[in-house]
Specification:
The chain is built from 11 helices and 13 strands. The protein is globular, with a radius of gyration of 20 Å. The protein folds into 3 domains: 95 residues, 3-Layer(aba) Sandwich (Rossmann fold); 66 residues, 2-Layer Sandwich (Dna Ligase, domain 1), CATH 3.30.1490.20; 93 residues, ATP-grasp fold, B domain (D-amino Acid Aminotransferase, Chain A, domain 1), CATH 3.30.470. Helix 1 packs across helix 11 and helix 7 runs antiparallel to helix 8. The strands form 3 sheets. A 5-stranded antiparallel sheet has the order 11-10-9-12-13. By secondary structure, the chain is of the alpha+beta class. Strand 3, helix 4 and strand 4 form a beta-alpha-beta unit. Bound molecules: adenosine-5'-diphosphate (ADP) and magnesium ion. The site of adenosine-5'-diphosphate has 22 residues, from strand 6, strand 12 and strand 13.
Length: 293
């Protein structure tokens, strides 16, 4: 089997993956996503490989583990690889759903899973109406993005008007979709569960003084057991977005657990440290299983 890991840069997470592959005696290539050139119009050339070494990846590899830092690169590469007969992990469908919070929420709601009340609007005036309808505090998020970037919690109409006007005047294209959510009064933490191949393998509570608890923003991880309700909910959420190897964010609301989002290009080093689970090993075993199919 010919396997490759697609990378932008080698983070701690990728080092853990390389170690797990080496421990298993698996040979693999590392492909830098900055060097890729795909020929979409000539499948033969794409499949057999062009002169540049990295362009050969479609023809040469049975499966590719997508570890690009950029969600859009991972998603685009997944589509191209899948069309050329190379199995990407995760699948293009899972990546497309998870990389867009609107599509994620649709998938969760369709699967009947509890998630925070969310409204979507396209125009500053209707966005303000959506915020007022949700009530204060309300949360505004860009539909694509991660690491808690550009999330806003607005506590009153003045703040809502300011954030909406800034998005309208200064925001890039993604800010033209207003994703407006109820603020969940969570207990100073949220929950991240890693689901791989349908099974919740590890979890952590992320504690933070800040309402945005992402580990990338300083959230502090503590082991969260996955054998109870939270693990089952995460497994259902993973299935709802198309399965694969994903990280499910769950919020504890006063009325019960809510699925916040699902990440398909997951970072797992904090959860590895907090839970003591060899997540990289589980990810690699899953990848090898998919590659063999
Ligand atoms: N509706 C909400 N109510 C309360 N906290 C929230 C809400 N949405 C997000 N958060 C907090 O912000 C963090 C980041 O939000 P999230 O939707 O996961 O965006 P990102 O894709 O940037 O991680 C969450 O982990 C959670 O701590
Ligand atoms: Mg998140």
């Amino acid at each position: 089997m010919k396997l490759a890991v697609l990378l932008s840069r080698v983070r701690q997470d990728e080092k853990l993956i390389f170690e797990a592959l080496t421990q298993r005696g698996v040979e693999f290539a590392k492909v830098d996503d900055r060097e890729l050139v795909f020929d979409l119009t000539d499948p033969a050339a794409t499949t057999q490989g062009l002169t540049a070494s990295t362009s050969k990846m479609v023809g040469r590899f049975d499966s590719v583990l997508l570890r690009s830092v950029s969600q859009t690169r991972a998603q685009t590469t997944a589509s191209i690889l899948a069309a050329a007969g190379t199995k990407p992990v995760n699948s293009p469908a899972t990546l497309a759903t998870c990389n867009d919070k609107v599509l994620t929420t649709i998938a969760l709601v369709q699967a009947g899973l509890p998630s925070p009340r969310t409204l979507v609007a396209f125009d500053p005036e209707s966005a303000l109406k959506a915020v007022e309808d949700i009530g204060y505090p309300a949360v505004l998020k860009p539909p694509t993005g991660s690491w808690g970037r550009l999330l806003s919690r607005v506590n009153d109409r003045d703040a809502a008007e300011a954030v909406i006007e800034h998005k309208d005047t200064l925001g890039s294209y993604v800010h033209s979709i207003y994703y407006v959510q109820e603020h969940v009064a969570k207990p100073g933490r949220d929950i991240r569960i890693i689901v791989i191949g349908g099974r919740a393998v590890a979890g952590m509570y992320r504690y933070s003084e800040h309402w945005v608890t992402n580990a990338a923003r300083g959230g502090h991880g503590v082991n969260c057991p996955v054998d109870g309700d939270v693990g089952r909910l995460a497994e259902k959420a993973a299935a709802a977005v198309g399965g694969g190897a994903v990280a499910v964010d769950i919020l504890e609301s006063p009325t019960g657990l809510l699925v916040n989002e699902v990440n398909a290009t997951m970072e797992f080093k904090e959860c590895t440290a907090a839970s003591g689970v060899d997540i990289a090993g589980a990810l690699v075993d899953y990848w090898l299983e998919v590659a063999r199919q």
